[in-house]
């Protein structure tokens, strides 16, 4: 069973880098189901969705989709979009923060220039008392992303924090170092295709490591975001914090826009801080493919949408 799912994930994730599939889905995909996971193609559409979520007691983290940028010009454009997004969130009174991908800021081109762009965004966010999350991408960028976040903190921009992926074998070591710097971290299972040499291939091992990382963070008292739709893990966290009298103010749950919405609302109703990750923009294809890879049933959902249209 585990092997079947691994093969499925590997094939679907392979599509994320396929230009022909990307072009086809850009043409049709939003109508074929991507809108279930993506809050809109424009900033205004996404802000309207964010305000609706706020009204339902959910905080947001907004993500302007885009990754694997190839030119500095493109990366500058993405930086400008984030600055405009931060301003618009403040003007409209959206309760939330932003998440960005370091390769969208040009990390594949130059560490220094990517750092400058992210610093610019973090400074604009700091002016608005807003937090900036650096999403974690594939393992090619783990070390470089962590270096950028640490440099931001050293430069006084402590309103930034990274993501740690439980499937990576190195994560325990990384997390200790981030905890010792008091850094706000988002913990996830991990969404990319990684070799067994560096990542746990079995779901059971990923889940065990995820719990180990969550436990060490909650015990440390440093603010932590637990980002998962896995109800077993969520229930385990709830029991753990109740047993140790850890206050709800020490952590938050995060889930993706369009996934397990009733659970998000229920947890918020129960007094937990819940943040919805709200992606928008025209470059939604790789994000969409990762969501399909996480759950075979989502592919069925897309196929059903296609059949309905024909
Ligand atoms: C807020 C947030 C931010 C994230 N940021 C990053 C990041 O920076 N880097 C990174 O590598 N990964 C990131 N991820 C993705 C994460 O690594 C996992 O790939 C993803 O969350 C699926 O794992 P899970 O923990 O939900 O558990 P799973 O065991 O995969 O899923 C548990 C249950 O949740 C439901 N579910 C899970 N995924 C889906 C889906 N796509 N569609 C419908 N139902 C689903 C299903 O019912 C499933 O049985 C993020 C996830 C979240 C929620």
Q: Features of this protein?
A:
single chain, 310 residues, alpha/beta, TIM Barrel, nine-stranded parallel sheet, 12 helices, globular, binds flavin-adenine dinucleotide
Unreliable stretches (pLDDT < 50, length at least 5) are none
User: Secondary-structure element order, as H and E?
Assistant: HHHEHEHEHEEHEHEHEHEHH
Helix and strand composition category: alpha/beta
**What is the radius of gyration?**
19 Å
Read across the widest sheet, the strand sequence of neighbours is 4-3-2-1-9-8-7-6-5
Present as ligands are: flavin-adenine dinucleotide
The level of helicity is: 40-55%
CATH topology: TIM Barrel
Strand residues, percent: 5-15%
Provide an overview of this structure.
There is one protein chain. The protein is an alpha/beta fold and 310 residues long. It has a single domain, classed as TIM Barrel (Alpha-Beta Barrel). Helices cover 53% and strands 13% of the residues. It contains 12 helices and 9 strands. It has a 9-stranded parallel sheet with strand order 4-3-2-1-9-8-7-6-5. Helix 1 packs antiparallel against helix 11, helix 8 (203-220) packs parallel to helix 9 and helix 11 (285-294) crosses helix 12 (296-309). The relative contact order is 0.16. The model has no long low-confidence stretch (mean pLDDT 91). Flavin-adenine dinucleotide is lined by residues 135-136, 163, 165, 188-192, 227-230, 254-256, 259-260, 277, 291, 294-295, 298.
Helix and strand topology:
Layout lengths: L1 H14 L3 H10 L14 H13 L3 E6 L7 H21 L3 E5 L10 H17 L4 E3 L7 H13 L5 E2 L1 E3 L5 H10 L4 E4 L14 H18 L3 E4 L3 H14 L6 E6 L4 H9 L4 E7 L4 H10 L1 H14 L1
Parallel strand pairs: 1-2, 1-9, 2-3, 3-4, 5-6, 6-7, 7-8, 8-9
Flavin-adenine dinucleotide (FAD) binds next to β5, β8 and α11.
């Amino acid at each position: 069973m585990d092997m079947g799912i691994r093969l499925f994930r590997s094939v679907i994730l392979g599509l994320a880098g396929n230009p022909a599939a990307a072009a086809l889905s850009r043409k049709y995909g939003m109508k074929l189901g991507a809108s279930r996971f993506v809050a809109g193609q424009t900033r205004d559409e996404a802000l309207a969705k964010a305000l609706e979520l706020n009204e339902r007691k959910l905080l947001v983290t907004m993500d302007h989709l885009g990754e694997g940028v190839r030119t500095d010009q493109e990366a500058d454009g993405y930086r400008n979009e984030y600055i405009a997004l931060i301003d618009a969130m403040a003007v409209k009174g959206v309760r939330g923060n932003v998440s960005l991908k370091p390769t969208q800021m040009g990390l594949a081109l130059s560490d220094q220039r990517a750092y400058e762009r992210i610093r610019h965004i973090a400074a604009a966010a700091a002016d608005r008392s807003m937090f900036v999350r650096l999403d974690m991408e594939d393992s090619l960028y783990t070390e470089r992303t962590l270096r950028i976040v640490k440099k931001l903190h050293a430069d006084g921009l402590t309103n930034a924090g990274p993501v740690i992926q439980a499937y990576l074998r190195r994560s325990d070591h990384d997390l200790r170092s981030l905890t010792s710097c008091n850094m706000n971290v988002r913990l996830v299972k991990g969404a990319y295709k990684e070799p067994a040499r560096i990542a746990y291939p079995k779901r059971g091992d990923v889940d065990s490591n995820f719990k180990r990382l969550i436990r060490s963070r909650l015990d440390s008292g440093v603010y932590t975001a637990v980002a998962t739709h896995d109800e077993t893990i969520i229930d385990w966290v709830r029991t753990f914090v109740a047993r140790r009298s850890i206050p709800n103010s020490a952590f938050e749950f995060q889930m993706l826009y369009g996934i397990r919405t009733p659970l998000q609302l229920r947890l918020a109703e129960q007094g937990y801080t819940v943040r919805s990750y709200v992606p928008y923009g025209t470059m939604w294809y790789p994000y969409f493919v990762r969501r399909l890879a996480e759950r075979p049933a989502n592919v069925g959902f897309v196929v059903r949408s296609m059949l309905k249209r024909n």
